Each structure stands twice: as C-alpha cells, then as structure tokens.
C-alpha cells in the first residue's frame, strides 16, 4: 500500500504546551501508513497544500476570533478547499480533525454557533455528555454516555444556529457537563461537521502519562492548587489514573479517527 500524507497544524504560536507532543505520540503509532509533517500555522503562516490526506489541527492560546489576516485567512481557505474536495462526487476524501482552539475557529468560520469567553477558565478534567446523536457517533463507540476529557479553555462554543447545522448537515455530538446550580448555557463539546470533518472542544490527545508527569511536578502542582484548589487537583489525578477516564478517551477518539482515515486510504490506494 502506498503511504498516505498527514499534516499536523500547530496553532500554539510557539507557546510551551503538552498538546503537540501528545499529538505526535498518537500519530507515530501510524507511521507505517503515512508520512507526517508539522506546519507552524500561527508563527510562520505555514499552511499545507490540499494534497495531504489527513489533517489534525491543534489547540492554542488566545482568542480564536483573532488573527493577523494572513495565517487565519490561509487556514480558512484551506478548510474551504478541503470541504469543496469532499463535496465533489469522487472517491478521494480529505480527513480533518479540529482540537479546542481549532474547533472554536471552525465553528465560527462555518457560522454554526457563537464563540465567547468563559466566565472562568476551564482547567483539568471534566465530564462530557454525549447527545442523542453522539450516542451513535463512531469515534465515541468505546466511551460511556458521560465520558472524561482533558479540558483547558478560556473560550467556548455556545448558542448553536440550528438552521445552519441543518443546512450544513452538521450535528452536535457532545455537550458540557450539567451544572444545575449555575444558570449558564452548556458549551458544545463536539461536532461532526461532515463524514470527513470532526472536531472537539476538549483535548482528546491529552495522554495520562505525560499529564501525570507534568502536573505532578511541585511547581506545577502548587500553581494548580493555588488557582483551582486541592479538590480539583485530586480529581484530575484520579481521572488520569483511572483506566476508564482519561486513558480511555486518549485511546479512543483520535485513534478511531485515524483508523477510519487509514481504512479509507487503503481502499483508494490499494
């Protein structure tokens, strides 16, 4: 089988992070199936061409609504081009996965919902609820109806435009945890934009081993406990160690996306 091509779109703008390392760790499991390359989207306005087969677009800092008019425009042009390719009656498809910051940008670009600042930063691990559509979602098949996700964000996707969802054929696959004591709308946590494009608000690439090492360092633990409390820190450690929590999410969502893309490529290139 001819190897496919995978592009990792780095939106961290040079800021230190765990996301890129974790994405690469998952991608490396599939190196027999495709070659991959990282593109510094925000720092150098590097955008891959549309001849890649698979695209994974990362999280990142700052507002998803801001851009310099160069890198963000190039990114949206690529997304539109990939959408057009997938819309044509051809066997060649382009598989795209949006993570956190990229997900927020995609939802805004497609006019599916509003992207707004949160009242407070979401940090650590959190329950995510499948919608009725999400209970049938093939990337969530191993996960319970309420699953655990790594969640670090200052922004959120809310107030969906259901007419736009219907027009586009997109579906909401997961929502933020239920908080009956807080009178705020639940954020959208996952969207299937199309058969080939999928995105999540959280970090499915968050690997338990790497996160445990990072957050267990005394200096990192001290900051977390000071800003979010000991109880939040203890819950995060528990979720990282529980095989049915973060480890299950890590081993399910992105691998399921890549498995599907690999199977599709094999059908085309064999």
Explain this structure to me?
With 270 residues, this protein is α/β, with parallel strands linked by helices. The protein has a single domain, classed as 3-Layer(aba) Sandwich (Rossmann fold), CATH 3.40.50.880. Helices cover 38% and strands 24% of the residues. The chain has nine helices and eleven strands. The protein has helices at residues 19-27, 41-44, 71-87, 101-109, 162-168, 208-216, 218-228, 230-241, 246-269; strands at residues 4-10, 34-40, 54-57, 95-99, 114-122, 125-130, 146-150, 153-158, 171-176, 188-192, 197-200. It has a nine-stranded mixed β-sheet. The protein has a two-stranded antiparallel ribbon with strand order 5-8. Helix 6 runs antiparallel to helix 8 (230-241) and helix 7 (218-228) crosses helix 8. The model has no long low-confidence stretch (mean pLDDT 93).
């Amino acid at each position: 089988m001819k190897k496919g091509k995978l592009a990792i779109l780095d939106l961290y703008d040079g800021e230190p992070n765990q996301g890129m390392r974790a994405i690469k760790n998952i991608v490396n499991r599939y190196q027999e199936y495709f070659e991959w390359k990282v593109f510094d989207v925000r720092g150098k306005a590097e955008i891959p061409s549309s001849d890649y087969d698979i695209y994974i677009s990362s999280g990142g800092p700052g507002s998803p609504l801001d851009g310099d008019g160069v890198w963000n425009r190039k990114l949206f042009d690529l997304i539109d081009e990939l959408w057009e390719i997938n819309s044509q009656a051809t066997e060649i498809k382009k598989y795209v996965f949006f993570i956190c910051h990229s997900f927020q940008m995609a939802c805004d670009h497609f006019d599916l919902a509003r992207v707004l600042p949160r009242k407070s930063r979401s940090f650590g691990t959190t329950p995510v609820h499948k919608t009725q559509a999400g209970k049938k979602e093939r990337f969530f098949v191993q996960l319970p109806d309420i699953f655990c996700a790594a969640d670090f964000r200052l922004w959120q996707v809310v107030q969906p435009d259901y007419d736009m969802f219907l027009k586009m054929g997109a579906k909401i696959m997961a929502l933020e945890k239920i908080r009956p004591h807080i009178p705020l709308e639940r954020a959208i946590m996952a969207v299937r934009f199309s058969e080939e494009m999928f995105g999540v608000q959280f970090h499915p690439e968050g690997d338990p081993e790497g996160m445990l090492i990072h957050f267990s360092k005394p200096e990192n633990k001290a900051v977390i406990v000071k800003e979010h409390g000991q109880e939040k820190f203890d819950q995060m450690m528990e979720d990282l160690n529980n095989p049915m929590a973060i480890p299950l999410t890590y081993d399910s969502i992105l691998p399921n996306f890549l498995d599907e893309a690999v199977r599709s490529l094999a059908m085309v290139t064999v």
